[in-house]
Amino acid sequence: LVELAGIKKDYYLGAQTVPVLRGIDLTVRRGEMLAVMGASGSGKSTLLNIIGCLDLPTGGSYRLDGKDIGALSRTELAEQRNRKIGFVFQQFNLLARATAQKNVELPLLYAGVPAAERKERAASLLARVGLSGFEHHVPTQLSGGQQQRVAIARALVNRPALLLADEPTGQLDSRTGLEVIALFQELHRETGVTVVMVTHDPSLAAFCERIIRLRDGVVTGEERVEKP
Amino acid sequence: LVELAGIKKDYYLGAQTVPVLRGIDLTVRRGEMLAVMGASGSGKSTLLNIIGCLDLPTGGSYRLDGKDIGALSRTELAEQRNRKIGFVFQQFNLLARATAQKNVELPLLYAGVPAAERKERAASLLARVGLSGFEHHVPTQLSGGQQQRVAIARALVNRPALLLADEPTGQLDSRTGLEVIALFQELHRETGVTVVMVTHDPSLAAFCERIIRLRDGVVTGEERVEKP
Ligand SMILES: Nc1ncnc2c1ncn2[C@@H]1O[C@H](COP(=O)(O)OP(=O)(O)OP(=O)(O)O)[C@@H](O)[C@H]1O
Ligand SMILES: Nc1ncnc2c1ncn2[C@@H]1O[C@H](COP(=O)(O)OP(=O)(O)OP(=O)(O)O)[C@@H](O)[C@H]1O
Ligand SMILES: [Mg+2]
Ligand SMILES: [Mg+2]
């Protein structure tokens, strides 16, 4: 599904160039669950943003589902993103003035799903992440972990082909975190969703099939996770 | 240092009352390191905000350093906060348009510290959290874990008597997280700072002297941590 070749990403601070990704080669097969690990500042979110078509690389090539992402117009890029990809952002990116319900409905609204179906699907997912009763809270009326779970529900409601999750359990207690991972696995079994998850937690990475490690802008390690 | 008796906190959603804290009795001795644990949504941030004079309880009494917090004016409350308490917020609360350097200098600016001293102390703390070279990045030019460490540096720069840290390592890889905890311990030894830390991570809680557990708005468990 995801084919990255020689991906580079530089940031610019005034006259200074800051190379963050220095040549990433990575293939993620359809239906795979992949964990990305690495130290703070090693480029994980940067990589996820590129895979998710939220940012363009400085160099290299990226094919998503066979399409050369570099050749797409902005409109085509946004369409790839909206139809195929679900995001759980590191800092949630919830709409501050919208309720939990409305935040989760948002991808469906963009997809043109009718109101009654939007409402039912969003409420169902909020229940699955343990937030029944909180539908009408706006983000400031939710705890950190509750906000994170709204973000997770929003990422899943559109049944994406590719789920990108950036530290999806950082704000959650162990039990709630495992419930979320169990939900990802369940969806993976049901729909074959491809999952790329950034995590610092080895016990979460162990739920994936493969782990890659970033360091100094390149993939320095890869291992297959053995299932017992 | 911190004496809470019968603390209650209710939130209001329209006509509905949501009781979150239902009677918290808690004493935190000067120089103690205390961990607060509990499930997502159990009231940990709510409790920390009350201890930190950022929010008022609905009921109960709170004495900080012998002063009855309920009897203070807004000005006196803000003074208690600014002079005695350092915060690491769950969502960092950095100033989006200020550099890392300026964010860390901010408590010193409020305290009337001269510019040259502000600059030196902020730079020194950024170095201690591993962010030398990042002083001039604004938050959008920093990773999630880097932003968290700026927040930590800002909480410590004013040498607070009381440090309140809400999930201070959620965005950090294990090694960086342990470096931050080592920094808290070092400061605890040097200055005797009292630390109240919310964490979901038992391995971090194990660095504290005592752990309390919140559930359904009350303290349901307490244990002393045995040092090997
Ligand atoms: N302003 C508010 N209005 C209504 N309810 C609120 C408000 N703030 C928090 N709550 C609710 O109060 C409860 C406790 O919130 P709090 O942020 O203290 O939890 P927490 O223990 O810090 O959770 P987490 O581990 O997820 O950060 C939650 O159920 C939350 O939805
Ligand atoms: N807009 C930007 N301008 C300049 N530098 C940036 C920008 N965004 C990120 N960086 C830098 O690029 C590096 C990688 O950032 P990235 O957010 O990808 O790291 P990360 O691996 O996700 O870290 P974390 O685990 O802390 O979230 C960091 O050193 C960061 O300071
Ligand atoms: Mg990141
Ligand atoms: Mg919280």
How would you spell out the order of helices and strands of chain A?
A: EEEHEEHEHHHEHEHEE
Kindly state the percentage of residues in helix of chain A.
Answer: 25-40%
Shape of chain A: globular
Distance between the termini of chain A: 27 Å
- What kind of oligomer do you see? homodimer
Please give the count of helices of chain A. Answer: 7
Main sheet of chain A: which strands, in order across?
Answer: 6-7-8-3-9-10
Q: What's the mean pLDDT score of chain A? A: 93
Sheet having the most strands of chain A: 6 strands, mixed
- Hetero compounds: adenosine-5'-triphosphate, magnesium ion
- Overall number of strands of chain A: 10
Counting helices, strands and paired strands, the structural category of chain A is alpha/beta
What percentage of the residues of chain A does DSSP assign to strands (E)? Answer: 25-35%
> Radius of gyration of chain A, Cα only, in angstroms?
17 Å
* Major interchain interface with per-chain residue totals: A-B, 30 and 30 residues
Low-confidence stretches of chain A: none
